[in-house]
């Protein structure tokens, strides 16, 4: 029964509206997560590409790769890479470091590129970042030089870059590479 002079929603109308809003939120939230992951993957790619370019600038300046890349075509593990890459590419204010004796700033690390322990991290916050360079005289880094867990991402003919950086984690959506 409808009473004159009173307006409002019935309980059924209110439940239908809430169910519809819940359904729309359920459809929208997963797509927002996918957009966020895509954005973080792209940010990681840009960061890793920037680091690879800074390594190329280092070689142009000094005529050889940094000490931590002394054995090309062997991935530099994250524990070794973190501190060494900071000193080699950013330099230390007022102090000459053996990695960068001229104290040249090839790359300026952002505050979000280091974790609380000073390790290099990607856009996802993962610290499993590896680096590798090609041997002198080679045109590519061969596919066989890459670890098994990322070999399927590497083109059959190898990677025609002087340096490659990539990050790994236990979740596939935290993967970022400099060559893709």
Describe the structure.
The structure is a single chain. This protein has helices spanning 11-62, 78-89, 148-151; strands at 129-133, 163-167, 176-177. The chain is mainly alpha-helical and 180 residues long. Strands 1-2-3 form a three-stranded antiparallel sheet. It has one domain. It has three helices and three strands.
Defining traits:
single chain, 180 residues, mainly alpha, three-stranded antiparallel sheet, 3 helices, 7% strand, elongated
List the helices and strands and how they pair.
Layout lengths: L10 H52 L15 H12 L39 E5 L14 H4 L11 E5 L8 E2 L3
TL;DR?
This protein is mostly helical and 180 residues long.
Strand content: 5-15%
Provide the gyration radius in Å: 25 Å
Compute the number of strand runs: 3
Shape: elongated
| Number of helical elements | 3
State the strand order across the main sheet.
Answer: 1-2-3
Average of pLDDT: 81
Our measurement of the CA-to-CA distance between the termini, rounded to an integer number of angstroms, reads 66 Å
**Helical proportion, percent range:** 25-40%
How would you classify the helix and strand content by structural class?
mainly alpha
Describe the main β-sheet briefly.
3 strands, antiparallel
How many discrete structural domains?
1
Low-confidence stretches: none
> H/E series, N to C?
HHEHEE
